[in-house]
Amino acid sequence: MGNKEELYQSLGIDPQVLSFGESILSELKDRFDGIDETAEFNQLKVIKAMQENRVSEACFQGSTGYGYNDLGRDTLETVYASLFHGEDALVRPQITCGTHALALALMSNLRPGDELMSPVGKPYDTLEEVIGIRDSRGSLKEYGISYRQAELKPDGSFDFEAIRSSINERTRLVTIQRSKGYASRPTLSVARIGELCRFIRGIKPDVIIMVDNCYGEFVEEKEPLEAGADMIAGSLIKNPGGGLAPIGGYIVGKKECVENAAYRLTSPGLGKEVGASLSVIQSFYQGLFLAPVVTASALKGAIFAANIYERLGFRVIPNGTEDRHDIIQAVELESPKRLIAFCKGIQAAAPVDSFVTPEPWDMPGYDSRVIMAAGAFNSGSSIELSADGPLKEPYIVYFQGGLTWPHAKLGILKSLQALKDEGLVSI
Ligand SMILES: *Cc1c(COP(=O)(O)O)cnc(C)c1O
């Protein structure tokens, strides 16, 4: 054991920071056991879906050109459909990111004159331009699709009256964001999503309910389609790619919804039949296989970070003891210096680009400067240990990921060390 402290010290963690971390950790054993239980359940679900859909070595061949009769692609889509309880799925490297998956699901299932509604307040920043909340070329608004939202109540609960009055004869699709993203509201549990689905169906039975599932996959034992949603969408460089998928997005749900998305992604008449899986298909399978345990590692990191920074007096969202419904941890650092130091610490813990210093920059799709730390194998992957935050009050850092728990632990200790070294916290 003596060697472990030395190794930490050689990675820049002083004994005081390490022993503070260890003392916090000793209180988290039961939480971590619970996370391991969920991971076990979800691992079995993934294996079962792979076995039932007869995943074979031939599935890893990949295809080129049009990609007709791509066994690996088509089988993977049946695996996703079984696993997430959908009738059909679209899982493609041609879906470039989470925003693209969500935009695709919306644009293909809405028609001019329809209205889109969010019952949980403002959606994720990048969706503002997709919807046209901020004017943008090619937005839903440009195509004559209007938008309405009902705010959550100040305590984070649903405003059922506001939701009821926001649904009308034109409402075609309701979008529910599971994770809080860059907002300070609580993340929704699958049970709460279920409650919302039942209420909305009671008002308008035939409306399409979509869930932005980014960061939520495998955090709980159930997923949103099991709670009454019609369609889920997400990114493969977050939870379900398990850190191995180098690109991609997915849409799972009702057959008609998924087919609409396929005809929009490729072309009317072609739909799911084309779209070569190239040489990335094995990583989609293998990443999905690892995803439950990778997600568990990220969750442990989030809980560890929450408890460390809460003990030091910062506001953390979720707090140190709350149940988790996504892998994001927010910490209100209250100063730009702390935000930057935190991100430098995360970067310095990375296996890749640990020598790089992150700087704030104008990132496309965001309305203020953002600082990001990630030494990732896949560029921008946020299931890998990463931290980011917009440079605006109250200087919240969003921390997420960690393909392995020991790496997440090192990252958090390095963030703390960076703050301590600059005299920005006292332990
Ligand atoms: C990450 C994320 C998105 C967008 O995904 P990108 O891959 O960054 O485009 C959308 N919604 C939520 C809740 C997210 O966390």
Would you spell out the secondary-structure blueprint of this structure?
Layout: H1 2-10, H2 15-25, H3 29-52, H4 71-84, E1 88-92, H5 98-109, E2 115-118, H6 125-131, E3 146-149, H7 160-166, E4 171-177, H8 190-203, E5 208-212, E6 231-235, E7 249-253, H9 255-265, H10 281-311, E8 316-317, E9 329-332, H11 336-348, E10 370-374, E11 386-390, E12 396-400, H12 405-421
The structure holds pyridoxal-5'-phosphate.
Pyridoxal-5'-phosphate binds next to helix 5.
Note down, in words, how this protein is organized:
It is built from twelve helices and twelve strands. With 427 residues, it is of the alpha/beta class. The chain has two domains: 172 residues, Aspartate Aminotransferase, domain 1 (Alpha-Beta Complex); 217 residues, Aspartate Aminotransferase, domain 2. Strands 1-7-6-5-4-2-3 form a seven-stranded mixed beta sheet, with helices on both faces. Strands 8-9-12-11-10 form a five-stranded antiparallel beta sheet, covered by helices on one side. Helix 3 runs antiparallel to helix 10. The protein is globular. It binds pyridoxal-5'-phosphate (PLP). Pyridoxal-5'-phosphate (PLP) binds next to helix 5.
For the record, give the distance between the C-alpha atoms at the N and C termini, rounded to a whole number. 24 Å
On the 0 to 100 scale, the average pLDDT is 96
The CATH homologous superfamily of the largest domain is termed Type I PLP-dependent aspartate aminotransferase-like (Major domain)
**Class of the largest domain, according to the CATH hierarchy?**
Alpha Beta
Number of strand segments: 12
Spans of at least 5 consecutive residues whose pLDDT stays below 50 are none
SS strand fraction: 5-15%
Bound molecules: pyridoxal-5'-phosphate
- Biggest sheet features: 7 strands, mixed
Side-by-side strand order of the widest sheet: 1-7-6-5-4-2-3
Helix content: 25-40%
- Rg is 21 Å
H/E series: HHHHEHEHEHEHEEEHHEEHEEEH
In one word, what is the shape? globular
According to CATH, the fold-level topology of the largest domain is Aspartate Aminotransferase, domain 2
CATH architecture of the largest domain: 3-Layer(aba) Sandwich
User: Helical region count?
Assistant: 12
Class by alpha and beta content: alpha/beta
Number of domains: 2
